[in-house]
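Following the same procedure, backbone shapes were mapped to integers, as reproduced here:
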Amino acid sequence: MAFVDYKPTLGNFWSSFFGSKFVGFEWFTYFFNGSDFKIVMRNTLVSSALTLVLGFIVPILLALALNEVKNQAFKRVVQTASYMPYFISWVIAANIFVALLSSEGAVNELLQLVGLTKDNIPFLQEGKYFWGLVSGANTWKEMGYNSIIYLAAISSINPDLYEAAKVDGAGRLKQITAVTLPLLRPTIVILLILSVGNLLNTGFDQYYLLGNSLNRDYSDVLDTYSFRYGLQNSMFSYASAVGLFKSAVAFLLVFGVNAIARRMNSNSLF
């Protein structure tokens, strides 16, 4: 469909599809030369990079912190509370954020209470706040679930290594840096490769639900862009070309990062 000028006016789908004119890379050229390309790619890459950094570091820190908790009951409560947002629909989560970040929401009231601001901040009406807000929302929703993988890897570490580190005079922080993190390295690298592969796959729900006409210059990413042109403007071939471009770049990213990881130290990981 990305290589034809599809128009659903020729009868059923198959007659419309095979009866459409073949245009080659015309839709791709139209996208690359359009004024929206730079804006959409900027929003996609910046918000994805922020989410990648936060969503990669925070689960590791959370897993390390939970591993240091000795009270098992408290540890289970914190762990359960941290990964519960993963199972909440983005429709519910987005409404929670809209209520908290509104001009008269709890966040503005708290900022005014501590004296950080005197006026209400329109978080969702000004685009400059959007990247940070959506990255924080993604991290909040995913961090608890992702930390389970690191906790499972930490639990498989031989306790004798920690005992040997104690004999050498290592404290808790030194044990983390000298024992835990080096042994987590294979898990960290593999999950990083998987995360980089999703660099352009920002998601649709959170951007569609938190975005609006006032912050569109910062909230419009490849997924919402292709949705708007494909389903709302009925430019099916153009939206297909945008989606195919995203998939192709994502494949190249996974292939490139995988090749780099193999070159750096592949024998212990792959």
Remarks:
- The mean pLDDT is 87.
- The two ends are 37 Å apart (CA to CA).
